Amino acid sequence: MKKTIFITGASTGIGKATAKLFAAKGWNVIATLRKPEAESELNLLDNITLMPLDVTDREQIKETTQKALSLGDIDVVFNNAGYALMGALEATTDEQLVQQMETNFLGVVRVTQAFIPYFREKKAGLFITTGSSAGLMGFPISSMYDASKWALEGWSESLSFELAEFGVGIKTIEPGLVATEIGAKSVIASHPAYESLLAKFLAVITPDKAASTAEQIAEVVYEAATDGKHTLRYVCGEDAKTLYAQRLAVGDEAFREGIKQLLAEA
């Protein structure tokens, strides 16, 4: 029997690459995006069903979840929708910081919450979330983005215990810099006092320095969905692996000094 994956944020990047990969592997894919009518690629592929979903819309989460479940069994929910809010906290409006947490954190929580009763009753299922190396390490000029990803870390680890009671898994994918993602999905809050720091950090994370493609991260999502392991975190991308290993090796304070040095040389 074909397995089915439900994906949020499938319009670009990792979400779209994952939808394509799972469809190619013979899975049924329910790919959700805010404007499915504007999609011109996934709608042409076999095994893919498009549905509308804005993860900040609580009523639409309920409606789309029920509609997806009415089509048949779902085996994996991939919470991928998100974007990066960059810039100094002082420059960030209240609306911007609320929107960042509503999308990156509460959107994941609410979609997961909507599917838990179904997975609990069938005593099977897996949630996979797109986290980030920025959920394992804090970086400059991205405090609210990092906060949203760090929140996912604690939430996932805690939730893993209660889901395990019913044979349901939860895993987090932790990529580093992924080509095309930063420029296409970022909101930048600017402030003259922080222009230099922002420019230095953006120079360090330009897409041409990306260690991974969306397709490579999609392969890790597939691995997480099919390896049968209870692994909580999948650190992926050579940049993320290197930086995280360095942080664990040298400790928090020495790692922060290293980031300062990196920016000084940018």
Fill in the keyword field for this structure:
266 residues; 9 strands; Rossmann fold; 48% helix; 16% strand; alpha/beta; globular
Secondary structure category:
alpha/beta
Number of domains: 1
Mean pLDDT: 94
Query: What is the CATH class?
Result: Alpha Beta
CATH architecture: 3-Layer(aba) Sandwich
Q: How far apart lie the N and C ends?
A: 52 Å
What is the number of E strands? Answer: 9
Helix percent band: 40-55%
Poorly predicted regions are none
Basic shape: globular
CATH superfamily grouping: NAD(P)-binding Rossmann-like Domain
Largest sheet: 7 strands, parallel
Order of helices and strands: EHEEHEEHEHEHEHHEHH
Query: Counting H and I runs of at least 4 residues, what is the number of helices?
Result: 9
Read across the widest sheet, the strand sequence of neighbours is 3-2-1-4-6-7-9
Short description:
The chain is of the alpha/beta class and 266 residues long. Helix content is 48%, strand content 16%. Helix 1 (13-24) crosses helix 7 and helix 3 runs parallel beside helix 4 (143-164).
Give structural notes:
The protein is 48% helix and 16% strand. The protein has a single domain (4-264), classed as 3-Layer(aba) Sandwich (Rossmann fold). The radius of gyration is 18 Å and the shape is globular. It is of the alpha/beta class and 266 residues long. Helix 2 runs parallel beside helix 3, helix 3 runs parallel beside helix 4 and helix 8 (238-250) crosses helix 9.
